[in-house]
Amino acid sequence: MDFEDRIDREYRVITPRFPADVLLKRTISDDALQMHLSDFVNYFDLSNDEILFRKRGNMDGMARWNAAESRISGIPRSLDGTKERLG
Q1: I want to staple 78 with a disulfide (CB 3.0 to 4.6 A). Which of 3, 8, 22, 37 is the partner?
Q2: Within-domain flag for 85
Q3: What is the SS3 string spanning the chain?
């Protein structure tokens, strides 16, 4: 299995765990944030891997990067104020 397939598989495992509000780009409650914090950390770690993969020139095509960039930039909007909310 190549890296891109692994990334896709891992995103398919992680994102269904997110509250629906995250997928709809709505801010989530503090309780939901705490409950899913490890999922968000895994998501951002995976996103960082994907960005590094792109920077190294290993990503297959611009369409692939455009899809990745859209996915990566979508989730943080739901987590506005997270640092302050976590204390």
Answers
A1: 22
A2: no
A3: CCHHHHHHHHHHHHHHHCCHHHHCCCCCCHHHHHHCHHHHHHHHHHHHHHHHHHHCCCCCCHHHHHHHHHHHHHHHHHHCCHHHHHC
Q: What is the pLDDT of residues 18-45, one digit of tens each?
A: 888 888 878 888 888 899 999 988 988 8
Please tell me the pTM assigned to this model.
0.74
From CA 66, how far away is CA 47, in angstroms rounded? Answer: 13
- What is the span of the domain harbouring residue 32? 3-78
Q: Is the separation of the CB atoms in 41 and 19 below 8 Å?
A: no
Position 23 in a domain: yes
